[in-house]
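Severity: low
Component: inverse-folding endpoint
Summary: output formatting inconsistent between runs
Steps to reproduce: submit the following structure tokens with default settings.
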């Protein structure tokens, strides 16, 4: 049986708990949502050729809710992970599923907050050592 939505959710939540110091200030109010595919709005907005083109998507609740600025509000940023595209990439590669999900999470947070490729690479190396994969997961 392929990993379920709940399995991917558990993997993602454990990754969020273990993210390197420095990222945590950006994601204090981050909500992880795992779905099989992006919805029609996201698919259209990002002009996807197929719903398999997107592994994850960071959606901000607005300027008042971003990261450390959201300490008192009820609004949350959300990180969507798309199970079927993640599983397809996992099946097509020899990459560990947890590592792949971790890479998607790092890239989505990084892209949203304007990290450079070098910043994302540094965080990957913090988590996986110098053998981290450097291709884009998002």
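Observed output (run 2 of 3):
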């Amino acid at each position: 049986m392929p990993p379920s939505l709940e399995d991917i959710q558990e993997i993602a939540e454990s990754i969020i708990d273990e993210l390197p110091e420095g990222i945590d200030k950006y994601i204090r109010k981050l909500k992880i949502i795992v779905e099989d595919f992006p919805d029609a709005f996201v698919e259209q907005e990002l002009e996807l050729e197929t719903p398999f083109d997107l592994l994850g998507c960071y959606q901000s609740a607005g300027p008042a809710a971003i990261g450390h600025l959201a300490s008192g509000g009820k609004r949350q940023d959300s990180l969507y992970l798309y199970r079927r595209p993640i599983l397809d990439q996992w099946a097509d590669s020899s990459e560990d599923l947890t590592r792949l999900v971790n890479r998607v999470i790092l890239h989505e947070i990084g892209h949203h907050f304007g990290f450079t490729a070098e910043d994302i690479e540094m965080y990957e190396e913090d988590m996986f050592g110098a053998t981290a994969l450097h291709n884009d997961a998002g």
